[in-house]
Amino acid sequence: MDASTCASEGEPIQQLVDPEGTYRRDALDCVVRGVGVAKSGLDYALVAIMGPQSSGKSTLLNAVFGTTFREMDAMNGRKQTTRGVWVAKAPKCQDRCTLVLDMEGSDGRERGEHDTYEKQSALFAMAVADVLIVNMWCHDVGRESGAGKPLLRTVMQVNFKLFHPTQTVLLFVIRDRSKTPKEKLEQVLREDMEKLWESIQKPEKHKNSQLQEFFDIKFVTLPSYEEKEEEFRAETTLLRRKFSDPEEPSSLVPRRASVPIDALSLSAEKIWETIVENKDLDLPAHQIMIATIRCDQIASELILELRDSDRWKGFVQMCNQTLAEGFASEAKAHLEGCLTGYDEESMYFDEDVRTAKKEELVIKFSELLVAPLESQLLFLQESLLRQGTKSLEDALSEGQGFSKAADACTGTCTKNFDTWADLCLSVGSRDVLGGPVRHAEKALKSSFDAMLAKRKSKGIQTTLKEVSARITDILSEPVVALLEEPSSSLWRSLTSKVAEASDEGCALLKSELKGFALSEEELQGHCEDLKKLAEELVEGRVKEAAQHVVPRMRNAFNASFMKDSRGLPRTWGRKEDIPSITKEAYLRAADTLALLCVRRLGPDNENVLEAVEDAQVSIRRLATSSTRDESASSALLSKRAWPHALLTPAECVRAWSRFDADAQLAISQAMATQEAHARAARASLPPWWALAAIAVLGMDEFMTVLRSPLLLLLVVGLVVIARIIYLRFGGVQPAIAAAAVALAGGRTPFQGERASTGTSHPKHD
């Protein structure tokens, strides 16, 4: 077909690149000027087509775009029709200027096996076209060479190398569709394109780019042109609408061009020159292609044969049941069998191809080995974890420090795993087998670390319990003793006891945990926990004492009221000042209550000191008050809550009321006893007139006694004897009177209170 030939309707068709690879500079300008679109600017589209020779490319373009490219005459045999690259405007796309490139078919016998031109033309189409149509037969879907994947792979890779590609619409037109659903065909082609995309070498900046960033892949199926021509033309008409109507579903209207149409010829020429000068498009020799295909087949057959063999199935079953000691050697034997068979069958093919495919065979074997390897790695993890746990417990039972024992067990476990893993990795591809091994190594480390952490935590907790028990033993008796009879130094003593117990416990803890190699911060944290434990223990005892404060108030009252300054029981004679003694005893009881109102463990702060002072003043006010009504007593206490309070003001009032009821009984008994003493003393003396009569009438006898020393001594002796007799028998009457008063009251003062200060009186507590 001559380059200057035009269609009978006047639409110019020009040969842009001749069969020898010469670019015709004026061809594209001729088309642009001939159809009057030179002023279209960027508003145009360029559509190209690629596919096998005699696959109906020209027929498809003519049917869709209304062009008149030369079509193959089937009656004259199947042979090359389109030679070179041809260009024409699409007459049936009136809405937008559309230029169409008809490419020479690939895989033609005329070009032979060293066909570089088909790759050059295909790359040219991909570089300049907005929409690249890939024309293919339905029965070629899923094939390697038949589907044109090697050609696509080459041109896509070189396209990245030579140019800066933008997004291109890649339209797969599947001819002579069969019963296979379109969705299944699309799925296969998309998967093939994704694999093809992953296999090509991309520039560094596009290493992680996705296929969709550069290619918008679409699919169309068409019926057979020869068997269903009318249906074929109807569907190509629908396809044409996708190139002209943006609103059409799955529209193929491309974006605005990046090069003005009047500069398109120059741009295309520079692209072609770049492609021709590149040497990466040379085809491999026919022998290389045959060697590649055959060696690949041999490797695949050997892998399938191995997978279906009884020996391999037995090996896999064994790997799934237990840890096999000879796993690496058995796997290596299987691999060597495959390699031996491969070498025997591929010995006559190209050496480089044989070597490359042999490496692929090792990779395929490694992929087959992954499943049993993963099973073995799980068994290995369990075995090493058990061994490590046992070794750790043995080392600890021998008295070895935890940190040292853990490091030794970890080192042994890691060494054993690395030895086993190196044997396995030496069998096949490290790239394939390395993933499961690294994953297993990470899992083993995580499990081993968890085991060590759990055992370490258990050891620390055991030590903490032992030290806590020791602190409890240290504090129990002294704290109970201090709370039996609280003094003004109670809280200072309790704080001191807590500090002493905490220090002793911390020193013991550091000594016991020395082998755990804990940091200073961790040890300090545990010591703080022990201090809190000691404080909580003491605080619990104090709270218990505060809930039973009434017996302690009674003890404090008794110590002041029932005994004198020498600690001797009071006889309640006429000289005893009961009101003063009562006031002093009440204040002692009030101080005891105030001591147990507010928690003062540890250093005092301003709020605590204010609360303590407020409690002391309020309770002393209550002690010196004459009121006995509980509601009236509540008015004497502070209205605000005390911080760190052990007893609320209301609880203090209730405790004072219970105490005061018993105290009043003791006071009344003391007063009754004193009154009985006074009555007895008055009853034992003779009347005054009797004493006067004795003095007058006995004057002579008195003088006689004074004059006689012997008689004087006798009288003095009789007086002493009479005094003794009086003191022995004359004081019985007051004692009987005091006993009668006590019996009238129903009980003796605070009967049974001294048995236990922690137990309240049955009547009041």
From TrEMBL:
Q: Which residues form the signal peptide?
A: none
Give the binding site residues for GTP.
Answer: 51-58
Q: Name one GO biological process term.
A: endoplasmic reticulum membrane fusion
Q: Which residues form the GB1/RHD3-type G domain?
A: 41-256
Report which superkingdom the organism of origin falls in: Eukaryota
Ranges that cross the membrane: 710-729
Top-level EC class as recorded in UniProt: hydrolase
What is its membrane topology? Multi-pass membrane protein
Q: Which GO terms describe its molecular function?
A: GTP binding; GTPase activity
Q: Which InterPro entries match?
A: G_GB1_RHD3_dom, P-loop_NTPase, RHD3/Sey1, Sey1/RHD3-like_3HB
What's this protein's family per the entry? Belongs to the TRAFAC class dynamin-like GTPase superfamily. GB1/RHD3 GTPase family. RHD3 subfamily.
- The entry's protein name is Protein ROOT HAIR DEFECTIVE 3 homolog
**Natural source organism:** Picocystis salinarum
